[in-house]
């Protein structure tokens, strides 16, 4: 499975600190088979897709190639998140608890509420050794105030 990892920070990210194919561990017992850099045109298309199609509608807007603004809306998103968790929890029965419809869907609703294969690297200094699922990004958003500016650094391809 291929997808992308996005480096996002509340501080501007120096080019020297951009996430790249060598930043994350790709050794034995890590989740990645490999990571690789992508070209600038693909990077820009991926950023536009993230902001316009993946993140909750209207919550963010792209204001330049590497910058997006948080417009608010996290409170409504949190209501929807909790509702989705409850719906998935209520769907678990003794008969399906170990099937795809059972706890797997509940776990997915909790850990990956945006339901994407994208991962998020929330370190502007390039020192973090891991990328996280969408719940980590949404938790990060909970600490923002409307109008906050977010900077996008490296965007890399990964394969699991």
Keywords:
160 residues; alpha+beta; six-stranded mixed beta sheet; 6 strands; 33% helix
Give a description of the structure:
- The protein is an alpha+beta fold and 160 residues long.
- The chain is 33% helix and 22% strand.
- The chain is built from 4 helices and 6 strands, in the order E-E-H-E-E-H-H-E-H-E.
- Strands 1, 2, 3, 4, 5 and 6 form a 6-stranded mixed β-sheet that branches.
- A hairpin with a 2-residue loop joins strand 3 and strand 4.
- Helix 2 (74-90) packs antiparallel against helix 3 (100-111).
- The protein starts with a strand and ends with a strand.
- The mean pLDDT is 91.
Helix content: 25-40%
Low-confidence stretches: none
Global structural class? alpha+beta
Total of DSSP H or I helical runs spanning 4+ residues? 4
Please give the oligomerization state of what you see: single chain
- Beta strands, count: 6
Q: Give the integer mean of the pLDDT values.
A: 91
In angstroms, what is the radius of gyration? Answer: 17 Å
Distance between the termini: 5 Å
Instruction: Give the percentage of residues in beta strands.
Output: 15-25%
Shape: globular
Largest sheet: 6 strands, mixed
- Along the chain, the helix and strand elements come as EEHEEHHEHE
